[in-house]
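Teaching note: in complex prediction, the entire set of molecules is handled at once rather than each chain in isolation. The prompt given to students was simply: 'Predict the structure of this complex.' The entities are:
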Amino acid sequence: MEQPLPTAAAEAAAAGGDGEAYRIRPLELADISRGFLGLLNQLSPSPPLTEEAFRARFEELAALGADHLVLVAEDAATGRLAAAGAVLVERKFIRRCGRVGHVEDVVVDAAARGRGLGERVVRRLVEHARGRGCYKVIINCTPELTGFYAKCGFVEKNVQMGLYF
Amino acid sequence: MEQPLPTAAAEAAAAGGDGEAYRIRPLELADISRGFLGLLNQLSPSPPLTEEAFRARFEELAALGADHLVLVAEDAATGRLAAAGAVLVERKFIRRCGRVGHVEDVVVDAAARGRGLGERVVRRLVEHARGRGCYKVIINCTPELTGFYAKCGFVEKNVQMGLYF
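The expected output is the structure of the full assembly:
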């Protein structure tokens, strides 16, 4: 098995250098056995997802094509997933049938934080939305994370309100 | 032509009383000639939409079925549109493949404000999201509108950030 890169090199590689320690790629069905559900649980603790339910949702999202993209960061050495995020493209009538990218569910494994992985995933999601013709991308986050998203190029805009059933 | 209801009665009717002054219903193709584009322009001023572009986007959204609903409020007396709003249903993996409703592009014609129309449209969009199995509905708004959405049952949650291309 390839020797894991020493931390400093991992940091450089995580920042997108050559010989990447982490590969950012679209979610795959097999990711259910590479730690995807564990990542989700760090984002929003909930009872485990069955493989069947995962597969069904995976296929529903695949049917939406490029309008809904889930990206993951795979540790090149272990094959385990270290981060994930999603973007969905909303089709509007305003702005001459404009499109808006909604970034959702960004999570970095607690053991892999501080290596720029979250920023790499978010930037890839933003580029995907740009490529889909969106005029903007939005993200809702806690006040503690506004600094992180400012680093990714976002600015504070509005208030997010929620209604729970 | 039916005599327009006196203002007080219009207010009562707008609040969903009998003999409704406004009917809340899904967007129709013919709404391009009932003031839909003028409403959008009040929401986000932009060059007029061609009928062809409107039709193409209408059909794209129709293909998403109940996961993307645009509602309008039609003045029963004139057939003109007085309000509009949309909700899109996001399919997630978290929360055991949970769904979230995103309320977007709520607008009430300047001449029809103060009659509870906006609240009626928002409540119908919320009910649609509930019916689609969403565990919550979210909306992004300016600080000035948080009171309105609180009246509709929303609570302040997070910060919305944006990145414009």
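Point out the following to students. Helices of chain B lie at 7-14, 36-43, 51-63, 94-97, 117-131, 146-151. Residues 98 and 123 of chain B are 21 Å apart (CA to CA).
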